[in-house]
């Protein structure tokens, strides 16, 4: 009987949207009222991208997450 082949799961690394924090470069913070910019950091399913994927620094990633949650609560962004 022939041995079964084992398939390795290929993991694709997604590149970040940018290598530098866009909020640091513009010297501004994410704002829930500017939901068009916040939607860049959401997947098509509505999930917030990680720091590695979004390319945002840790300080602005925390602020971004809270502002996205605030915009969702006010029905500006989908859950």
Automatic annotation (TrEMBL):
The keyword Secreted does not apply. Keywords: Ribonucleoprotein, Ribosomal protein, RNA-binding, rRNA-binding. Coiled coil: none annotated. One of its GO terms (molecular function) is small ribosomal subunit rRNA binding. GO terms for cellular component: cytosolic small ribosomal subunit. GO terms for biological process: translation. Signal peptide: none annotated. It holds the Pfam family Ribosomal_S18. Binds as a heterodimer with protein bS6 to the central domain of the 16S rRNA, where it helps stabilize the platform of the 30S subunit. Part of the 30S ribosomal subunit. Forms a tight heterodimer with protein bS6. Belongs to the bacterial ribosomal protein bS18 family. This is Small ribosomal subunit protein bS18. The gene is rpsR.
């Amino acid at each position: 009987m022939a041995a079964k082949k084992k398939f390795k799961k290929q993991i694709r690394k997604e590149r970040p949207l940018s290598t530098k924090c866009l909020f640091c470069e513009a010297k501004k913070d994410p704002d829930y009222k500017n939901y068009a910019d916040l939607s860049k950091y959401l997947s098509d399913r509505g999930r917030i991208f990680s720091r590695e994927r979004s390319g945002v620094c840790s300080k602005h990633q925390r602020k971004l997450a809270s502002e996205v949650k605030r915009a969702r609560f006010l029905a500006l962004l989908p859950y």
